[in-house]
TrEMBL record:
Keywords: Cell membrane, Membrane, Transmembrane, Transmembrane helix, Transport. The chain crosses the membrane at residues 6-27, 36-54, 66-83, 90-114, 120-141, 162-187, 207-225, 237-255, 261-280, 292-315. Its main location: membrane. GO terms for cellular component: plasma membrane. This is Transporter. The lineage of its organism: Bacteria, Pseudomonadati, Pseudomonadota, Betaproteobacteria, Burkholderiales. Coiled coil: none annotated. It is a multi-pass membrane protein. GO terms for biological process: transmembrane transport. Belongs to the auxin efflux carrier (TC 2.A.69) family. InterPro entries: Mem_transp_PIN-like (IPR004776), Na+/solute_symporter_sf (IPR038770). It is found in: Cell membrane. It comes from the Bacteria.
Length: 316
């Protein structure tokens, strides 16, 4: 129980189990899952994103390791997106293979394993992780919507430039990018949120992780994991092992080494974040597969993170 991997992952497993048991016991109705999803996506998520980004000062960020990390993420994201058909389902599965649980699992794990120096590196990444990952995914999803509309003959005469602009507009006027952008703009003013505003946002943001994971457990009652086990295992292996391998190879290729690169590699090896599940529900695609993959990725993480950390320690 003293292992940082076990200490970080077990609370996540327990919260998912609580949601599963609550539905089985009749404490949460299956019909309420959609309402819970709307609560998380439209209320808790914006509060968390705005408050997180409201203290981020762009000029203080070290962009070199971030650019390396997101270059690896983008390579895998686009590979999965193109390989799976460039539609809504492909975009959500690409996010599933690249979006790490940097907060609920990453923060306690990196803190226990790498101390304060590691936390500085991780929090620099966390400060822009949601902005980059979720904005890219939202824009890609909106582009996929525009593409599918054109293929269906609903926008055949529409100029491509207008299609792109409409997709970008749809990607920005959205419960995810809007609070991120608003928070970043607020941070650049140098102002501080008043306590009467900051405290409610803090409470709402703190509820995001537990409620989202309980919701994942509730959704598992409707999913036959055995049916999706092979596909979920494939997604989990890409997320837990292929992504950290890409980050490591790219980092070494660029001459990076030491604790900063190690933290980036381990962060890439973290299990899938619950935000992927929310996108699957929002766009009503691959919901069962993403739910199964989230559970498999988290459980598999007990082994894969230990393996990655051991290899990083041996090589570093």
């Amino acid at each position: 129980m003293n292992s940082p991997v076990v200490s970080a992952l077990l609370p996540v497993v327990f919260l998912i189990a609580i949601g599963f048991i609550a539905v089985r016991a009749g404490l949460i109705r299956v019909e309420a899952n959609k309402d819970l999803s709307n609560l998380v996506f439209s209320v808790l998520t914006p509060a968390l994103l705005f408050r997180t980004m409201s203290t981020v000062h762009v000029e203080q960020l070290n962009f070199r390791p971030l650019l390396m990390y997101f270059a690896a993420v983008l390579l895998l994201f686009m590979g999965v997106f193109v390989g799976k058909g460039r539609d809504h389902r492909a975009a959500v599965l690409a996010l599933a293979c690249t979006f790490s649980n940097t907060v609920m699992i990453g923060i306690p794990l990196i803190s226990l394993a790498y101390g304060q120096a590691g936390m500085v590196t991780l929090l620099t990444l966390v400060s822009v992780h949601l902005l980059v990952m979720l904005t890219i995914t939202t824009v890609v999803l909106e582009m996929a919507s525009a593409r599918q509309a054109r293929l269906a003959g609903q926008g055949g005469q529409q100029h491509m430039a207008l299609t792109v602009l409409l997709a970008l507009k749809g990607g920005l006027i959205h419960p995810v990018p809007m609070p991120i952008i608003a928070g970043l703009l607020f941070a650049q003013t140098g102002l501080v949120l008043p306590e009467v505003v900051d405290r409610p946002l803090q409470l709402l943001g703190s509820a995001f992780g537990p409620v989202a994971l309980v919701l994942v457990g509730a959704m598992l009652t409707q999913v036959q994991i055995g049916t999706h086990l092979k596909a979920a295992l494939g997604i989990s292996l890409l997320k837990n092992l292929a992504l950290p391998l890409l980050v490591a190879l790219l980092g070494w290729g660029l001459g990076m080494a030491g604790p900063t690169l190690n933290v980036m590699i381990v962060t890439a090896a973290l299990p899938m974040g619950a935000n992927v599940f929310l996108f699957a529900q929002r766009y009503e695609v691959a919901q069962e597969l993403v739910t199964a993959s989230l559970a498999v990725s988290t459980l598999l993480g007990l082994l894969t993170i230990s393996l990655v950390m051991a290899l990083v320690g041996w090589l570093g």
